[in-house]
Specification:
By secondary structure, this protein is mainly alpha-helical. The chain is built from 3 helices and 2 strands, in the order H-E-E-H-H.
């Protein structure tokens, strides 16, 4: 999961800032452990593919919605707006 996150950060950084970060550090809130990733240009296509996979999964599940703990709240919020 952390590797996927670092790939997404790499894509975001590259697309929005035009550069890759030297290092990405992820700090575990449970135990304070720090995991470092050193992104390379090979991470960009992997991150883009991961975004495409996420997009496809979301679109396949109930027209953009998926079962989660907030499903009832979403339905209540959008009930009058013709959104599924």
């Amino acid at each position: 999961m952390m590797e996927r996150y670092s790939q997404l950060v790499s894509v975001f950084s590259y697309e929005s800032l035009g550069i890759l970060p030297e290092k990405i550090e992820i700090v575990s809130l449970l135990d304070g452990r720090i995991t470092a990733f050193y992104p390379s240009e090979q991470d960009i296509p992997k991150g883009v593919q991961y975004l495409e996979d996420i997009k496809q999964l979301v679109n396949e599940n109930n027209q953009g919605c998926f079962e989660c703990p907030l499903t009832k709240q979403c339905k209540d919020i959008f009930k009058d707006q013709n959104v599924h």
